[in-house]
Amino acid sequence: MNSIRDLMTHDHRHCDDLFVAVEGFVGKSDWGQAGKAFDGFRAAMLAHFRSEETSLFPAFEAQTGMTMGPTQVMRSEHEQMRQLIEACHASLVAHDADDYLGYAETLLIMMQQHNLKEENVLYPMCDQHLSSRSTELLALLESGLRDRGA
To answer: Which of 16, 27, 32 is nearest to 100 (CA)?
Structure first.
């Protein structure tokens, strides 16, 4: 991947694919596989958030001086999605398909809206403003995205 937008958009799709797999297992009431699939999704999402919050957003803010702009909105949405992810997890542990599907629908809508903003606004701004550091930042982001266990 040669741009922040390409790398992070690709990771959005990876997280989306993991999320869809969970719903398939819930639909079959295969709670063991649903739990395993959800653990993979949750780890991927949290690694994505961490990578942005510890590498990308601080670099963008330092370069542009914008600390109350798009990165602040994204952080707030990350927190809301973390809460929904935990609600989904609790529903899976309780084997409550209705609750899971309700929380998952809300999370899906939020993820779609969030991803559109990042992919069409924030990431292009990052590529523009951080071009001199792109090699370094891409390496940091890729490393953070691979770190699914923390």
So the answer is: 27
pLDDT digits (tens, 9 = 90+) for 84-138: 999 999 999 999 999 999 999 999 999 999 999 999 999 999 999 999 998 999 9
Confidence (pTM): 0.93
DSSP 67: S
List domains and CATH numbers for the chain.
Answer: 4-146 (1.20.120.520)
Measured CA to CA in angstroms, residue 141 lies from 15, 59, 76 at distances of 15, 11, 20
Is residue 144 within 8 A of residue 47, CB to CB? The reply is: yes
Is pLDDT of 150 > 70?
no
Residues 6+ apart with CB under 8 A from 15: 41, 44, 45, 48, 111
The Cβ of residue 124 has, within 10 Å, a number of other Cβ atoms equal to: 14
